[in-house]
From TrEMBL:
The gene is nadE. Its EC number is 6.3.1.5. It is an enzyme of class 6 (ligase). It catalyses: deamido-NAD(+) + NH4(+) + ATP = AMP + diphosphate + NAD(+) + H(+). Pathway: Cofactor biosynthesis; NAD(+) biosynthesis; NAD(+) from deamido-NAD(+) (ammonia route): step 1/1. The keyword Lipoprotein does not apply. It holds the Pfam family NAD_synthase. Homodimer. This is NH(3)-dependent NAD(+) synthetase. It comes from the Bacteria.
Length: 250
């Protein structure tokens, strides 16, 4: 594990140097993936790294695992409460659509969830730009493969150090980096609505997706779920489609 952590630390340093940036910023949720990135950027840039805690519907101090994560890593952090901004924006969007069109109740939960992820992304980019830092993503291999992220929300970042790691490898790295045990033990959750857990929503466990990505044989039903998610989210792993070049003479 030490070798891989050293390798990622040096990789972060070189990517940020190549970009002529000064350091690195990450959104800190209190979950496992961001906790690992917190520790990696602190190693790579001890004096030029930053965590941003951005609750919606909670106070910053109530994001206990997030605060514990940054404090234990001794990472400089900002707490930016997005509750008011989110509620105002969501109310304005809904009000406007209700006045002029049709508000679709069935799409409300997911639409609101993705708006939260994109508000966090916009906030993080604004903060990072102030310091001339790059935004570091927290996506891991099972999330990337299944498209389990908000397009241009938490899926938007300048560099993605955990992309090749299974959830199990992220957890092992977290233990090596001495991430708080309370964070390591939390069930993975996007926390975009009450009671949400990744595995309930995905319909398959991380253990199973990890095994599939390692090339092991898994239950056919689970394989179908994973491949279905992969296919449906293909557009998230590519640049937006553009039409073919205009033919010469047009
Ligand atoms: N074929 C296609 N080609 C090009 N674009 C296409 C498309 N199909 C949909 N789209 C576009 O993509 C949008 C749907 O994608 P997207 O906006 O991402 O939304 P969607 O994939 O529907 O939802 C995001 C999922 O990620 C989960 N999530 C989000 C954030 C954080 C975490 C976490 O683990 O912390 C998890 C969330 O719970 C939910 O299950 C559509 O509204 C449409 O604009
Ligand atoms: N309240 C929050 N404050 C700051 N950033 C957040 C917050 N919630 C989510 N994020 C950002 O969105 C990312 C995606 O969330 P995701 O749940 O996939 O990862 P995680 O919470 O770090 O780990 P886990 O998947 O184990 O819950 C987080 O890693 C973090 O960068
Ligand atoms: Mg989470």
């Amino acid at each position: 594990m030490k070798e891989y952590v050293d390798y990622l630390t040096e990789w972060l340093q070189s990517k940020i140097k190549d970009a002529n940036a000064k350091g690195a910023a990450v959104g800190v949720s209190g979950g496992l993936d961001s906790a690992v990135v917190v520790n990696l950027i602190k190693r790579a840039f001890p004096d030029n790294s930053l965590g941003v805690i951005m609750p919606v519907g909670q106070e910053v101090e109530d994001q206990k695992e997030a605060v514990e994560t940054v404090k234990k890593a001794n990472l400089f952090y900002l707490g930016i409460n997005l509750t008011e901004s989110y509620e105002k924006l969501f109310k304005d969007i809904k009000g406007n659509i209700e006045s002029h069109g049709e508000w679709v109740e069935d799409n409300e939960q997911l639409g609101g969830a993705n708006l939260k992820a994109r508000l966090r992304m916009s906030t993080l980019y604004a903060v990072a730009a102030n310091y001339n830092y790059l935004v570091i993503g927290t996506g891991n291999a099972p999330e990337t493969y299944t498209g389990y992220f908000t397009k241009f929300g938490d899926g938007a970042a300048d560099i993605e150090p955990l992309s090749h790691l299974t959830k199990q490898q992220v957890r092992e790295m977290a233990r090596y980096l001495e991430v708080p045990e309370s964070v390591i033990e939390r069930p993975p959750s996007a926390e975009l609505w009450e009671g949400q857990t990744d595995e309930d929503e995905l319909g398959v466990t991380y253990e199973t997706i990890d095994a599939y990505l390692r090339g092991e044989t898994i239950d056919e039903k689970d394989e179908q779920i994973i491949e279905g998610l992969h296919e449906k989210s293909k557009h998230k792993r590519h640049m937006p489609a553009v039409p073919p070049e205009v033919p010469k003479g047009e």
